[in-house]
Amino acid sequence: MVVDDDPAICDLLKSALEIEGFAVDVCENDSDVSIALSKFHPDAILMDASMPGLDGISLCRHIKQTPATASIPIMIVSAYDDDKTRHDAALFGADDFVAKPFDVKFLVGKIKKLAGW
After folding, report:
1. Cα 93 to Cα 73: distance, rounded to the nearest angstrom
2. What's the confidence (pLDDT) of residue 46?
3. 8-62, pLDDT tens digit by residue?
4. What CATH number should be reported for the domain holding residue 42?
5. Structural contact between residues 2 and 27, judged by C-beta atoms closer than 8 angstroms
6. Residue 98 covered by a domain
7. What does the alpha-carbon distance between residue 28 and residue 10 come to, in Å, rounded to a whole number?
8. How many domains does the chain have?
9. What are phi and psi for residue 63, nearest 5 degrees?
């Protein structure tokens, strides 16, 4: 699952992951994520840290505190590559962190590892 409010980032990641064999669901906000998670259990979630409404780090905490979704690996992607953002992501349950801008091949490799591929 890719969660980002930027359609260009969503399209880029969806295409890159589908080429590698992933089935990708795209969500643009926390409401979309809640609906999607009620329907299926993704292998991993790639989530932007900064989104309108509930930010990605807070959404990560919510997903990790919910028993039905707690085991889903989450990678936070953020334009803010500072100690506080990295600390908060880890504190609220993120399994990995990648800073923007990112190399798509590097990111896909990390997602494969995170999803157990």
Report:
1. 9
2. 95
3. 999 999 999 999 999 999 999 999 999 999 999 999 999 999 988 889 999 999 9
4. 3.40.50.2300
5. yes
6. yes
7. 8
8. 1
9. -60, -45
